[in-house]
Amino acid sequence: MASRPGPIGGQPISPQRRPMLVRCIVIGIVLTVVLVGFVVLVVWLAVRPQRLVYTVEDGKVHGFDLYKNHLNASFDFILKSYNPNHKISLYYDSIEVSVAYDDKIIAFDYVDPFHQPRHNVTRLEVKPMARSVPLMGSVSKNLRIEKSSGQIELAVLVKARIRFKVGIWKSSHHTLKVYCKPVGVQLDPSRKFETTYCDVNS
């Protein structure tokens, strides 16, 4: 009587050994996760990262003209970026600044890349421009009403690609989003601008 062929590639794993193998794999995965979490915790405790702080310190508008629902204007804003971290510096590789009214982007500008040291305050002067920007009838109407009151409430948005630096280590790129609202721009230069604090997400 012919014998039955044996398994290819050696002896199969017995049913008794399978639970032990699965248990070893699970334990290995758990230990790896715990080790990575421990390293992250140690790094976090050593670095103590803090959220960046952004404010709009000043805002002006020039050449404001709203004709046939098309807006022309140039804005001047001073943004203050505060890095409160004592061990983390930042590289801003690209920065876009937009101005919105009633959720409609009406002007934008770009800022040159720069490095922000640890525990540093950097002021950015941005000059977004609106050039014949078409507005819907309702948006144009609301803007005219605000103009007649002497103040326009805007939103200033910052979107940047940043990298963090701790010692000699640099992170990969992250997207920083800053949202400042309401930014009250005075059309009467004798009226004082009020600082606006921004929401920061990175």
TrEMBL record:
It is a single-pass membrane protein. One of its GO terms (biological process) is defense response to other organism. InterPro entries: LEA_2, NDR1-like. It is found in: Membrane. Pfam families: LEA_2 (PF03168). GO terms for cellular component: plasma membrane. It comes from the Eukaryota. The chain crosses the membrane at residues 21-47. Residues 79-178 form the Late embryogenesis abundant protein LEA-2 subgroup domain. This is Late embryogenesis abundant protein LEA-2 subgroup domain-containing protein. It comes from Coptis chinensis.
